[in-house]
Amino acid sequence: MKISKRAMTTSAALAGAATLSVSVITPAASADEGNTTVVLTSYGAFARGHNTSGEVAQKAKEVLEQEGITVIYQEIATDWSTFASDLDSLVEANDPDAVISLGEYAKLSAPAVELVGYNKRYGVDANGNKGEGEVLEGGPSYRHAPAENRAAQQAVRRAGYNINLSDNAGRYLCNAALYTNLGFLEEGRVEHAGFVHVPARAQGAAQNDKDGEAVAAFVKNLVS
Q1: Contact 102/178 with Cβ under 8 angstroms?
Q2: Looking at the DSSP assignment, which residues form a beta bridge with residue 130?
Q3: pTM of the prediction?
Q4: Cβ burial, residue 109 (10 Å; 0-12/13-18/19+)
Q5: I need a labelling partner for 76 at 20 to 30 A (CA). Which of 39, 44, 61, 205 fits?
Q6: Per-residue model confidence as pLDDT tens digits over 64-89
């Protein structure tokens, strides 16, 4: 069970605020008391001029907010040196119920919920930095997404949404985000965590909205 910072007394909250450093990530919205709050991230461009995960995330945010779920959305840089601190800052600043990250993968035809994050870093980021070694030094070799992630995917798949499962997120920054998010879950900082790969499509493609709706259905089912 997540130990929510919303449960702090007013005096404790004010005392903590006096010492809390300002996050380098500016929240896109504020978490509302009593509402389900989801931090949703996408990655910036790296191999092409745009990254489809941003378009899909924006559509998912729109759908989820129509359902009364507060969404803190942020595009983070495809950068080995900053991705982990960016994710950590968003979780720390917003005390969400869930953190879900998105990234694109060219070989997909539909979104895929990733189930295993590996403690390995490979590949060159958007700034030319080479990923080497572990995502988290001394961390477990891998982290499994909880059973509820598979159950949520299966539920929305039965409802007619085109979304699949995957147990191999690669070893690039998408895998690193999944591994990091599952770490927040293990630490009790969130109640739900995961990662969804989306197909790399043309900018403005109509199918991006469909993918966003599928992602929103998965997230809604996960946090409900």
Answers
A1: no
A2: 124
A3: 0.86
A4: exposed
A5: 205
A6: 999 999 999 999 999 999 999 999 99
